[in-house]
Specification:
Blueprint: H1 11-17, E1 24-28, H2 40-48, E2 55-59, E3 85-90, E4 103-107, H3 109-118, H4 126-137, H5 139-162, E5 166-168, E6 174-178, H6 183-192, E7 198-200, E8 205-212, H7 216-228, H8 240-244
Parallel strand pairs: 1-2, 2-3
Antiparallel strand pairs: 3-4, 5-6, 6-8, 7-8
Length: 245
């Protein structure tokens, strides 16, 4: 695993980590759990120097949330030039079908054939397939989900800024915050309030939590809980109505 720089992929570190044993490289764009991303220029420059016998998996689980002009929205076109590229996407995020565990990969036919040789039989069911097909046709749902996410992201960013809570600028449907104290403890306390966030100690970010964007009411409840649990250190409390309205 190559170290990141400013919570995003460091291309130089990835390239320096490649050796004769390297067979496959995974890139998550936008990245999880930080919400950062590689630009189109950064991605294409990287692909250009990778040997053709080395497979690159580009995980685009949060692709639909992106509206940044320098993000590679036309990444599927890269498959015409790079036969060693696999692009994966999912129906678990903006389409809301996480419980059905369905997604897809797009690649060169030769790679697709090899993947079919090793995949499990009946790896997806007919209900999940039907739901995925319907989801692709319901672009109005995607637009509404994107709008709600943008509003919720802004709401949380404003609240965390008002509380002087450090956060990583995110383009996904979540924000990673730094509480400057052991996040696992806060995670367990929030869980007792039926609020589920994700501690990031497995990533070496022991004071960070990843917070998914919820509805306006859910976001308000989260901020209230963070205040009441006294998660804030060296910060003056601000009246909730000032933060959340």
């Amino acid at each position: 695993m190559a170290p990141t720089q400013n919570y995003t992929h460091d291309i130089a570190n990835i390239l320096s980590a490649i050796d004769k044993k390297t067979r496959i490289i995974f890139l998550v764009n936008p990245n999880n759990p930080t919400g950062t991303y590689l630009t189109e220029r950064e991605l294409t420059d990287f692909l250009a120097v990778i040997p053709p016998n080395m497979v690159i998996v580009l995980d685009e689980a949060y692709y639909e949330y992106m509206d940044c002009p320098d993000y590679p929205k036309n990444s599927l076109q890269l498959l015409e030039k790079y036969s060693n590229l696999i692009i994966t996407r999912t129906f678990s995020k903006i389409y809301g079908l996480a419980g059905l565990r369905i997604g897809y990969a797009v690649s060169h036919p030769d790679i697709a054939e090899k993947l079919n040789q090793v995949r499990l039989p009946f790896n997806i069911n007919s209900i999940a397939t039907a739901a995925a097909k319907a989801a692709l046709l319901d672009q109005e749902h995607v637009k509404q989900s994107l709008l709600l996410n943008q509003q919720g992201l802004k709401q949380l960013q404003q609240a965390f800024t008002a509380l002087n809570i450090e956060m990583i600028s995110s383009v996904g449907n979540f924000i990673t915050i730094n509480l400057k104290k052991e996040a696992d403890v806060i995670y367990k306390q929030l869980l007792q309030e039926n609020i589920s966030v994700r501690p990031l100690s497995p990533y070496g970010l022991t004071t960070h939590l990843r917070v998914s964007v919820g509805t306006q009411e859910q976001n308000v409840r989260l901020i209230h809980a963070i205040e009441e649990l006294d998660c804030l250190t060296n910060r003056s409390r601000i009246h909730r109505m000032q933060i959340l309205t």
